[in-house]
Write a structure and sequence with these properties.
Blueprint lengths: L1 E3 L19 H8 L12 E3 L7 E6 L4 E6 L5 E3 L10 H11 L7 H13 L5 H11 L14 E5 L20 E7 L5 E7 L5 E2 L2 E2 L1 H16 L3 E6 L8 H15 L14
Parallel strand pairs: 8-11
Antiparallel strand pairs: 1-4, 2-5, 3-4, 6-7, 7-8, 9-10
Helix pairs in contact: 2-3, 4-6
Length: about 270
């Protein structure tokens, strides 16, 4: 059984001289329309490489979750999240705590963690996106970049479509990828294959409507969402698309990238 405490994790103290206790950088982001999530970070359940974990609310008062089955197939991150978000270096440090065999070798731990995260990816386009970005972590300055976290549980519904006929199971229980940027900015990346908008090769308006409805809800909650078509992430041109995207995304938030990251060809 894996316990997830779910305790509130404080961010860095706000600047008490700023209006409404908002830090100066947050004021700048807000003025540009780039506000973060209001809720406190509690935990991440991600990168499942086997059956869906079964989760129970063990203590509703203290918001403590327990994974009672299939915990061995997923990863759970419960460290406090500061104002700088979650970097690759921080995620590797957490991984070293879990795996004594690589505790003394950061490079080995980084490579080992990349392999484990990639095991949760099912499609070739997802792998192109992940491996293109992950390669940056092994360049100078790369460990300081935000971690690209795959297959993150956003909702959890213990029922299947068969057992919950009405209104049906919760949609989009997992996000393809999540970035936790500084100042509570949370970026969701989705890679769309045909299953997102068609059934048996035929366009399905109901599927598409469900997808854009979930997008709206996430955006209204404060998340940023960017979608990639699976077709644009082939092995030939996909890496350049991914590299150009991250150059532009991180440019919005003044996050420096390692050198030699090509600009987008779009």
């Amino acid at each position: 059984m894996s316990k997830i405490t779910g305790k509130l994790h404080p961010d860095a103290p706000s600047d008490t001289h700023a209006p409404n206790n908002v830090t100066a950088p947050d004021q700048v982001l807000a003025s540009l329309g780039m506000t973060g999530i209001d809720g406190e970070f509690k935990n991440l359940i991600f990168a499942a490489n086997g059956p869906k974990p079964e989760i129970v609310l063990r203590d509703a008062v203290n918001n403590r979750l327990d994974i009672v089955r299939n915990a061995q197939y997923c990863l759970t991150y419960t460290r406090p999240l500061g104002a700088d978000g979650l970097s690759w270096a921080e995620l590797v440090s957490w991984w070293q705590e879990r795996n004594p065999a690589v505790s003394g070798d950061q490079a080995a731990a980084s490579g080992n963690l990349c392999v484990r995260l990639a095991e949760s990816l099912a499609s070739s386009p997802e792998k192109v996106l992940f491996h293109t970005y992950a390669a940056l972590h092994f360049r100078e300055g790369g460990p300081a970049l935000p971690a690209l976290i795959p297959q993150v549980y956003l909702h959890y519904d213990p029922y299947t479509a068969k057992t919950r006929a009405t209104p049906g199971p919760l949609a989009r229980q997992r996000m393809d990828f999540l970035l936790l940027l500084p100042h509570r900015v949370r970026v969701v990346l989705e890679v769309d294959g045909q299953q997102h908008y068609s059934v048996n090769g035929k366009a399905n308006p109901e599927l598409y409507a469900q997808m854009v409805s979930e997008d709206r809800q996430l955006k209204l909650s404060g998340y940023e969402i960017y979608r990639f078509g699976g077709h644009e992430l082939d092995k030939s041109g996909g890496p350049r698309v991914v590299a150009g995207f991250f150059r532009e995304l991180f440019g919005r938030y003044d996050i420096p990238l390692p050198p030699a990251v090509p600009a987008s060809s779009n």
